[in-house]
Each structure stands twice: as C-alpha cells, then as structure tokens.
C-alpha cells in the first residue's frame, strides 16, 4: 500500500484537516488532525482511525500504524511552538 492510498482510506472515513504519513508500505507513522477528535481521549481517537481501516489491519495489508492525533486547536498550538 502506498502513502497516497492509505491517506485516501483514512480521509474517506474521517474528516481530516491534515494527514502526514511516512512508512515503508506496511509500517506507518501518521500525524492526523481532525475535528472528530474533539472530546475524545487518545484511545478513542485511535479507534476512530482504526475504524477507517476496516479489516486492513487484520489482513496485514497495514501491518503497523503509529499515530499522533490532534484536534485543530491542538495542531494550531503545535505550529505556534
């Protein structure tokens, strides 16, 4: 899977203001900014992202996904630092 494909899958299931992906086709690191994360704890945010992937994790199409998740306000604070 390519970064563009993974980005399209996540974006189709989760409204995102920003997605950055790095990886080797199976192991991925993502930075995701979405208003859907408002009021969610870290685990809830990760569940939202994993839900967009469906069974792709179970079938090993995406072997590993590490992520940092931010609300738009949190992302703006990161940029200001």
From TrEMBL:
InterPro entries: BolA (IPR002634), BolA-like_sf (IPR036065), BolA/IbaG_stress_morph_reg (IPR050961). Coiled coil: none annotated. Belongs to the BolA/IbaG family. This is BolA family transcriptional regulator. It comes from Comamonas terrigena. The lineage of its organism: Bacteria, Pseudomonadati, Pseudomonadota, Betaproteobacteria, Burkholderiales.
């Amino acid at each position: 899977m390519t970064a563009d494909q993974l980005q399209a899958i996540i974006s189709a299931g989760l409204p995102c203001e920003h997605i950055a992906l790095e990886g080797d086709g199976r192991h991925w690191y993502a930075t995701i900014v979405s208003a859907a994360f408002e009021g969610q704890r870290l685990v809830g945010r990760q569940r939202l992202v994993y839900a967009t992937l469906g069974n792709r994790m179970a079938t090993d199409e995406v072997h590993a996904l590490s992520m940092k998740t931010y609300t738009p306000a949190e992302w703006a604070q990161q940029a200001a630092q």
